[in-house]
Amino acid sequence: MLFMNATWKQKGLIVIAAVLSVLFSHLFVTAFTAFFGTASAAEQRSYGEKKGIRTAEEALQVLKKHFNKKDIVIGKVAEKELYFEAEIKDRQNSVIDKVIVDKRTGRIRSIY
Q: Are 65 and 19 within one domain?
């Protein structure tokens, strides 16, 4: 409605303001991405496979891959209706965490 009743000069200013708004938002997104990284960088820091997990053996492999550089032992993997559950133990066999692996997404999450 504002645009319909505006003069040609006002319409020109509105268009210029819209273009500048788009340019500044693009500049902001570019600067933000350069500083914080892209979505793919966030995906590389994810917790899990980002795919369905069908068996306890697959869940164990996902957990081994996730905890590969840690000095831990993965306990027995138990299958539940929507997820797999496993205990994470230190070398002295003390439970330090309990995690679940979502069957649908493969996401690993602590429940301890």
A: no
DSSP string, 58-107: HHHHHHHHHTTTSS-EEEEEEE-SSEEEEEEE-TTS-EEEEEEEETTT-B
pTM of the model: 0.58
Q: Is residue 101 part of a domain?
A: yes
Residue 2 lies in a domain: no
Domain region containing 80: 48-110
Tell me if 105 is assigned to some domain: yes
At residue 32, the 3 state secondary structure works out as: helix
The region, left, alpha or beta by phi > 0 then psi within -120 to 50, assigned to residue 42 is alpha
CA 47 to CA 19: how far, in whole Å?
Answer: 40
| Amino acid letter, 40 | S
Per-residue pLDDT tens over the stretch 51-105: 899 999 999 999 998 888 778 899 999 999 999 999 999 989 999 999 999 999 9
